[in-house]
Amino acid sequence: MRHIILVTFRTKPHDREIILGKLEGIAEAIFLYGLDKLPIEIIQKATIIFTGSGLDLKPEILARAKNLKMIQTLSAGVDTLPFEKIPRNVIVCSNAGGNAIVVAEHAFAMILAATRKITYHNGVMRSGIWQRRRYGILLHGKTLGILGLGNVGREIARIGKCFGMRIYAINRSGKTTMDIDFIGTPKDLDFVLRNSDIVVISLPLNKYTRGIIGERELKLMKKNAILVNVSRGAIIDQKALYNHLRENTEFTACLDVWWKYPPRGSDKCFQDYPFHELPNVIMTPHIAGFSEEIRTRVLLHALENILRFIRGEKPINIVDRDEYA
User: Fold this and answer.
1) How many Å apart are CA 100 and CA 208, to the nearest integer?
2) Nearest-CA neighbor of 238 among 213, 204, 264, 208?
3) For the segment 106-155, what is each residue's pLDDT rounded down to a tens digit?
4) Which site among 10, 32, 33, 108 is 20 to 30 Å from 125 CA-CA?
């Protein structure tokens, strides 16, 4: 059986070269993005959909893909997939781990910017002022809390260890093979929040994690703590974070992910609360998972999982859709 794979996300020539090269002689890839007219007969025969994050999945594609067996995402997160329209017999796989290294590096870039007062001093120097009164803090010996010890979380822990930090983390099982100082389950969230100098969120967004960091949880953290979010904005209650930052000026938030994103075709984007006016916020536009070097790695990681499925092997990163119902 020759598999037909529908590629629904926007691809560059280099992307297509990688996809076609990896699937040559094994499966046929059909690139749907930008087509004025969908090839109905081909969609009906397709067995696999290779989607970006699910936002590029048109309802008519899912409705007509009667032979669909697998959906593979290019993104690590799957919270934007239309699970209610995906038949239960279709395997859905994320691309978790594909960009873990670059996300972890970005998280630490934000941590260093916050702890060494980089953004503050950069702004002051650009004003022509030589000021050495605000010093940074040492990472060595500090406690790094990691919420979610998955692919990204483990990379963050590895880097933290290189800085001589204590690592406190939680995951579902409360177990890990990593040499860290504390591992617990979600029941230990309060303990990690209370005892960490820096907390990094690297959790998937699902019905269990949405809003898990709210007013109560923020008040548990140290007054001068740093909260880093490189997962999904909705894991934190937006209003609670804004109020906490405004009322606790020593507290810092480093945010790469947000609650609101600009509409297609626009580059204007503000949140429901004016985070951009607060000096204790470091902001980036959801770019932690992107770099020129990582694109090929992410594509190959996802394609290898598709090939596992085609070979009859069990793919990795199978999503428990009940977590998103």
Assistant:
1) 22
2) 213
3) 999 999 999 999 999 999 999 999 998 889 999 999 999 999 999 999 99
4) 108
Dump pLDDT digits (tens) for 170-203.
999 999 999 999 999 999 999 999 999 999 999 9
Laid out side by side, the sheet with 3-7 consists of 27-31, 3-7, 48-51, 70-73, 91-93
Residue type, 296: T
User: Which of 50, 47, 99 has its CA nearest to residue 72?
Assistant: 50
Spatial distance between the Cα atoms of 82 and 67, rounded to a whole number of angstroms: 18
Residue 288 within any structural domain of the chain:
no
Is 217 found in the same domain as 70? no
Please count the CA atoms within 13 angstroms of the CA of 285 that sit on its side-chain side: 6
Over its C-alpha atoms, the chain yields an Rg (Å, rounded) of: 21
83: containing domain: 3-98+293-323
Q: What is the C-alpha to C-alpha distance for residues 235 and 176, in angstroms, rounded to an integer?
A: 23
Q: Which residue's structure tokens are 């926007």?
A: 10
| Entry pTM | 0.94
Q: CB neighbours of 239 closer than 8 A, spacing ≥ 6?
A: 272, 273
Q: What is the DSSP string of 84-113?
A: GGS-TTSEEE--TTTTHHHHHHHHHHHHHH
H/E segment holding residue 183: strand 182-184
Q: Does 171 reside within a domain? A: yes
| Among 69, 65, 102, 55, residue whose Cα is nearest residue 301 | 102
